[in-house]
């Protein structure tokens, strides 16, 4: 019997097995898993680089590596952690969870989804291969300031193209999220009923769309300055190196919120679940996220107060920076109000969420200190800055990523994870991360500059303590891998709802969910508004 | 999404199958225009400051956003119309106009919900008679396909 089917209507035509399945998959859960695995691998590669840095800084003097290699480690560690670990991890969570949260069977553009993931392994092969090139890996800092970055050896074009690939992947992921959320929502899922993770991801996607072309333009000008005789950033040719700092941070500050906004969505899902209470102030959370996103575009020059701006500029950027504390404070107070008089339990996701709220707030406060212009003159380019952004990005973004993994792992695998190991992972992490980063505030206040392989002896004690914290924190993360591995292989069966206080469409699906989520669109009555 | 149109006797005589979309063309146009405006404003700002390479990337990106919305909304315009016409079961398929049309004798039609080609493949809804088969509803979810197959079988039985 012949088949007259003439139209290849969907993206599920061929399903090879083995490696080819993962290369050609267009399924949102497969691609989400790929993103998360890549992020985990990059987290350990970037972490290994951090341990090289902390090993060298354990004592004053040069023990293990040469200064050039040390600077390569600080540069590549940052690029790997930002573009290779945290951003792909968020895209992985978006892929896994957004279709399930909005009641869609898959992402709107599945082939684009596959492509946006598979760009990344090539981008990071390009970037990491530079470690073995003549002249070494880029060593001018992840901010790629000229003229220093133009002294990079053979690695320079590889750096630029790697950044372009990472940007293209991010844009493709952002477009997919936007098109999916605006087109594939289940009937009855209005915008103000979206879970906050979806809201914060939409806002993140808009930040990516607005900021990535600026980064692409900036690094392209670096490329033309290096190879095509232009002088955008060369003072000798009439250009202005400070202009690069403006253009870079016009991208760079929204980038910080690209890394942290989805974390706000995660915490807004976890806290109500384990507090067994609806989220306090859902609408204010949405508006606060949008306000933070808007403000992120008018604060960039607080990264460069010391370049010699006019006083009016310094005042403007100081005020706008400090203003960000208002919507961020709204969020922190809403989380606290959600927990107030609630029936909390302290499973591992909640522990990491609480760790996030306390420690991210410390990072926020040190950010406020840095936002005050005259104060920043003292702190600029010291270890105080290093402490600040690691409180925001490690105890902020990374803790929320870990919390989210514990939160949704039973849903993904159909098994409960080992709670004892999870709690051990939390306590080891939360203690060691403070041993690692809190002393860096003192080092910075005492005047220790960042990005140096050797230092004066008066900084020795706190550096030693910080390095001990780094090694304990780094090796504690192996426990995370053990917990995930054990959970994937087996364990107590997870129910569909998994957590007693969980609400939302993803918890109406079985654990693990079917390969194609929501074969039948969810009933509008199952959609709750303002819960998370 | 399956929409059934009933005739006077209460039985469904026509079904329209289409992919689910939440946005209209005019909403999408306004949305893309707003995204492009912000993107071009940023690119133009840097152009005026003597940094011309941002604007081409802004343009590329605005184009990518527009293409993404076009592809998804155009894809959402696909329709499959299944209806009874005298003794015939007519299947018409196309985007905006009828591009292909199949006719089967309604008394010989078989509706088959075939299993997936592999574990990861969605099931297939085949309609056929006399050695010919047409697969329909490939953009539907498995649940919608099952439900529609049931409706069609009932309608065929009722009209025999």
Q: Outline the biggest β-sheet of chain B.
A: 5 strands, antiparallel
Please tell me how large the radius of gyration of chain A is.
23 Å
- Major sheet summary line of chain A: none
**CATH topology grouping of the largest domain in chain B:** PH-domain like
CATH architecture of chain A: Up-down Bundle
The structural class of chain B is alpha+beta
Category by helix and strand content of chain A: mainly alpha
Mean pLDDT of chain B: 87
Q: How many helical elements of chain A? A: 15
Q: Give me the count of strands of chain B.
A: 8
User: Assembly state here?
Assistant: heterodimer
* Strand coverage percent of chain A: under 5%
Give the overall shape of chain A, derived from the CA principal axes.
globular
CATH class of chain A: Mainly Alpha
What's the helix-strand series of chain B?
EEHHEEEEEEH
Describe the structure.
The complex is a heterodimer of chains A (532) and B (160). By secondary structure, chain A is mainly alpha-helical. Chain A is globular and about 65 Å long. Chain A has helices spanning 19-24, 28-56, 67-102, 110-129, 155-183, 196-227, 241-275, 282-295, 311-323, 325-339, 348-371, 373-379, 383-413, 419-445, 460-489, and one strand at 2-3. In chain A, helix 5 (155-183) runs antiparallel to helix 6, helix 11 runs parallel beside helix 14 (419-445) and helix 13 runs parallel beside helix 15 (460-489). The N and C termini of chain A lie far apart (52 Å). Chain B is built from 3 helices and 8 strands; from the N terminus they run E-E-H-H-E-E-E-E-E-E-H. Chain B folds into 2 domains: 2-18 and 81-158, Roll (PH-domain like), CATH 2.30.29; 25-75, no CATH class. The radius of gyration of chain B is 22 Å and the shape is elongated. In chain B, helix 1 packs antiparallel against helix 2 (54-75). By secondary structure, chain B is of the alpha+beta class. Chains A and B meet through strand 1, helix 5, helix 6 and helix 7 of A and helix 1, helix 2, strand 8 and helix 3 of B. Strand 1 (2-3) of chain A pairs parallel with strand 8 (132-136) of chain B.
